[in-house]
Amino acid sequence: FASLDFFDVVSCQFAIHYSFETIERAREFVRNASSKLRPGGYFFGTTVDMKVLVQRISASENGRRCGNSQYDVVFDEFGAEGPKNGSRYVFSLVDAVTDVPEYLVDPDVLTELCAEEGLELVRMQNFYSIYNEEIVGSRFGRNANIPNSASKFDPDTWETLGLYMAFVYRKKGEPETMRHAK
């Protein structure tokens, strides 16, 4: 039963950014996720899209705060280079979290850490792109009660949706086949 200690999928939804307070913690997090994956297994998750958040902060009035009726982000002080991997901010999301410290996840740094642990990037995309590719015009958009265009969302909901990204990494190696005892 030792194989039960390993998995085909490791999922981390809206949480990996907490480990990015330091590169050492982020590295340990990725190491732990990878160590429980079988060869050919997948590590996937969601987090704030650093590129989008930095864009929004740069365009904000004071360069440290952005948001709308659904979310609020306030950055601590950062150097002249602006927010970077591990930069701390306080995040609030209506009906979910209030004033929670979080840390930026640079997608390139995440990919480097994953590569150190034998994980290859399969896909990394902002929720806008995923929505447009996977929902609009798909059977989900046609057969479910899902808006089939961005214009059907409340503007603040659409803006909040674009704050996030999803990632998928695959552990190197060939998947093992299941062999049943005779």
Word description of this protein:
The strands form two sheets. Strands 1-2-8-7 form a four-stranded mixed beta sheet. The chain has a four-stranded antiparallel beta sheet with strand order 3-4-5-6, covered by helices on one side. It is α+β, with helices and mostly antiparallel strands. It contains six helices and eight strands; from the N terminus they run βαβαββββαβαααβ.
Give the tags:
182 residues, four-stranded mixed β-sheet, four-stranded antiparallel β-sheet, 8 strands
Shape label: globular
Q: Using only CA atoms, what is the Rg?
A: 19 Å
Question: Hey, roughly how much beta strand do the residues contain?
Answer: 25-35%
Whole-Å distance between the termini?
Answer: 16 Å
Structural class estimated from helices and strands: alpha+beta
Question: Helical stretch count?
Answer: 6
Helix amount, in percent? 25-40%
Q: Going across the biggest sheet, name each strand in turn.
A: 1-2-8-7
Low-confidence stretches: none
What integer is the average pLDDT? Answer: 89
Report the biggest beta sheet as strand number plus sense, adding barrel if it closes: 4 strands, mixed
Please tally the β strands and state the result. Answer: 8
Order of helices and strands: EHEHEEEEHEHHHE
In short:
With 182 residues, the protein is of the alpha+beta class. The chain is built from six helices and eight strands; from the N terminus they run E-H-E-H-E-E-E-E-H-E-H-H-H-E.
Break the fold down into its secondary structure elements and pairings.
Blueprint: E1 7-13, H1 23-35, E2 37-48, H2 50-59, E3 65-67, E4 71-75, E5 88-93, E6 97-103, H3 107-116, E7 119-126, H4 127-135, H5 139-143, H6 155-161, E8 164-171
Parallel strand pairs: 1-2
Antiparallel strand pairs: 2-8, 3-4, 4-5, 5-6, 7-8
Helix pairs in contact: 1-3
